[in-house]
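Exercise 7. Given the encoded structure of a 703-residue chain, write a plausible sequence.
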């Protein structure tokens, strides 16, 4: 752009101090007043001479500047947030962008015009909370980067949904080209409150409100159906009234992290279905762990089990103990032996389902419990209960539990052999990948005597068993005899410990061992704690990133994780090994809302940007948020769907919008490149003029 040389004004550089120049000016004015009062004939000539002297002393100079014209700047703000990605809005945004670029290119041929384009995307803070559309922040960015005298105007292409602080003003017209259309409507589900913690099998309140926005073809008070899914399974179906906040009660039946999804039936012809559902994650825990411990023949480890369970204040323990074998008849009737009858029927028939875990510790079938009770325990397991059997010598004999109605649920059958002798248990290869026993020996590294077995203490007896084909053996003896076997039966779980000498670990024998930690993990696996699931898919959200964790007993994990965004876009990321039986992947998503995460076999949900993304609280286009700014700057609000406006250049102070057109203000900004001073007039010329005037005044007065 060529620079222009122009005269821009005068500058003064006094040859004497300003106070002296002021005194001289006052003296000249006083002489003028005296001369006018006395009507002296040469008074004006003398005044002109005084002015010439004052001008010479003031040192006037003409300023000549070399200025380079600057191009005017037109701003184009493109709203590419999630709410502007529905109902054909991306196509309208692209058409408006093309029209703006073409108009500025045409104006640039007449007088320089620069276009600055800012694309606004959905924003989230460091905590991963959805901040919505920061459109006004984009206008502030233009103000921060551009000289206000160069800004010709701003065109915002958006649905009008801005979620940051509005601007009070702008140095040029701001126009809104709406991507919405006339008569659009939408249905949304707002999650007003949701718990982050729950107690297993207790009601949790979920407060929601379903609204139809815009020109929806529904009537007030109409009912719609809402579904609540917990971990992918429908937990509640309930009708709610449009526009009314209502509370839905749901329950979580398993402890750990639970993905809860609330959805409403869609409205035909609505803008988007992405705000018809909301998801959140809560952590469920059992209020108390209810354990039924059934002890058979008295033995040294019986107190170890009882002490372990009673040491935890969160455990409610009911201990059913057989004090004498039935064959040892003391010669007294049962009524004479007991003042208070033990509530056997109540425990094993009426209240059995209230227990979280049933433990049979060296129990033998000697007609102490009615077979009906044992059958009910088997039913309890298949219906989702949990049982742990610790086997002693009686498990290998004719009184074995394997011969009872419970036998069909056990993970292994006894062979009838009892192996005596000290040995150090070890974790199997499969156990190294199972959460129950993985890293169990971390605090007990291999000893110098054996590089295969950890340095924990020995056990002294094994009941030889033959595991069922589908069961998992996690621990074994050095000779390969199974020690800890886990299995799933129906909806429940069973574990068998094929030794009754684990209590030696609790007594510190040969340094002891992690009995408490093993039991804690075992109990949590039996009760389906998600952290101990050996086959699971877990998704955790941090900001815009979804971390996917896959646990499996397989030696090779899945190839990649697949995430389906709310708009249906499929994102892929490879799994990387993170430990035995553990693989992780990480995916960054460009969208907010409920994402579906899968590895091809398992499926879970991840809510990005919060339970109800701010972008979809209201997706119906509006100009109400921008109206104060449009009125303050003289801008227009038009719909792209009704036709693209003509974009023209207007003079400052003239209207910037009209029927079918919007205007950008003509700016004449420039930057100073150089300046020079030319004295005016020269000092000698001023003095010569003053002398001539004084001579003329003298001659005038001498006549």
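Solution.
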């Amino acid at each position: 752009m060529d620079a222009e040389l122009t005269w821009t004004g005068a500058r003064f550089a006094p040859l004497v101090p300003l106070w002296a120049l002021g005194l001289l000016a006052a003296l000249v004015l006083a002489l003028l007043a005296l001369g006018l009062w006395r009507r002296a004939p040469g008074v004006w000539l003398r005044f002109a001479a005084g002015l010439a002297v004052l001008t010479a002393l003031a040192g006037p100079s003409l300023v000549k500047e070399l200025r380079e014209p600057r191009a005017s700047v037109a701003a184009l703000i493109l709203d590419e947030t999630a709410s502007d990605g529905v109902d054909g809005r991306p196509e309208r945004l692209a058409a408006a962008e093309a029209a703006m670029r073409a108009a500025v290119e045409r104006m640039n041929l007449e007088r320089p015009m620069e276009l600055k384009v800012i694309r606004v995307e959905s924003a989230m803070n460091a905590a991963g909370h959805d901040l919505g559309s920061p459109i006004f922040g984009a206008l502030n960015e233009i103000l921060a980067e551009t000289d206000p005298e160069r800004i010709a105007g701003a065109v915002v292409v958006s649905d009008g949904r801005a979620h940051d602080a509005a601007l009070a003003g702008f140095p040029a017209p701001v126009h809104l080209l709406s991507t919405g259309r006339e008569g659009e409507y939408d249905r949304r589900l707002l999650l007003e409150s949701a718990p982050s913690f729950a107690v297993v099998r207790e009601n949790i309140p979920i407060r929601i409100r379903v609204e139809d926005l815009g020109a929806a073809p529904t009537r007030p008070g109409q009912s719609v159906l809402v579904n609540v899914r917990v971990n992918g399974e429908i937990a509640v179906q309930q009708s709610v009234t449009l526009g009314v906040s209502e509370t839905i009660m749901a329950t979580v039946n398993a402890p750990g992290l639970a993905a809860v999804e609330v959805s409403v039936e869609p409205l035909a012809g609505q803008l988007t279905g992405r705000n018809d559902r909301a998801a959140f994650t809560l952590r469920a825990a059992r209020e108390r762990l209810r354990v039924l411990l059934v002890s058979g023949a008295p033995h040294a480890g019986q107190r170890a089990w009882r002490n372990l369970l009673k040491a935890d204040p969160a455990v409610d323990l009911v201990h059913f103990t057989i004090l004498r074998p039935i064959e040892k008849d003391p010669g007294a009737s049962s009524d004479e032996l007991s003042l208070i009858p033990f509530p056997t029927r109540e425990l094993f028939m009426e209240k059995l389902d209230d227990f979280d875990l049933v433990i049979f510790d060296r129990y033998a079938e000697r007609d102490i419990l009615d077979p009906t009770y044992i059958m009910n325990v088997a039913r309890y397991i298949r219906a989702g209960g949990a049982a742990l059997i610790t086997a002693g010598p009686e498990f290998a004999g004719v009184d074995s539990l394997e011969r009872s109605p419970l036998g069909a649920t056990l993970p292994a059958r006894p062979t009838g052999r009892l192996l005596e002798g000290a040995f150090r248990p070890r974790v199997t290869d499969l156990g190294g990948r199972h959460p129950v026993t993985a890293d169990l020996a971390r605090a007990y590294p291999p000893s110098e005597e054996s590089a295969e077995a950890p340095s924990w203490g020995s056990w002294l007896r094994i009941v030889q068993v033959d595991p069922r084909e589908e069961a998992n053996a996690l621990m074994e003896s050095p000779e390969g005899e199974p020690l800890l076997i886990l299995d799933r039966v129906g909806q429940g779980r069973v574990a068998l410990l094929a030794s009754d000498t684990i209590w030696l670990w609790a007594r510190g024998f040969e340094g002891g061992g992690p009995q408490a930690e093993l039991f804690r993990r075992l109990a949590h696996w039996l009760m389906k704690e998600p952290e101990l699931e050996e086959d699971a898919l877990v998704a955790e959200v941090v900001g815009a990133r979804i971390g996917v964790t896959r646990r499996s007993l397989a030696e090779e994990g899945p190839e990649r994780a697949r995430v389906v965004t709310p708009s249906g876009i499929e994102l892929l990321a490879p799994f990387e090994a993170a430990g035995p039986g553990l693989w992780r992947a990480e995916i960054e998503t460009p969208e907010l809302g409920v994402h579906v995460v899968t590895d091809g076999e398992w499926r879970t949900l991840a809510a990005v940007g919060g339970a109800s993304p701010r972008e979809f609280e209201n997706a119906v286009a509006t100009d109400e948020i921008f109206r104060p700014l449009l009125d303050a700057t003289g801008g227009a609000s038009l719909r792209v769907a009704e036709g693209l406006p003509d974009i023209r250049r207007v003079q400052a102070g003239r209207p910037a919008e009209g029927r079918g057109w919007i205007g950008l203000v003509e700016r004449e900004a420039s930057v100073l490149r150089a300046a020079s001073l030319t004295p005016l007039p020269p000092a000698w010329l001023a003095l010569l003029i003053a002398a001539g005037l004084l001579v003329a005044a003298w001659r005038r007065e001498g006549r």
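Remark. The chain has a mean pLDDT of 83. Students should compare their own answers with the one above.
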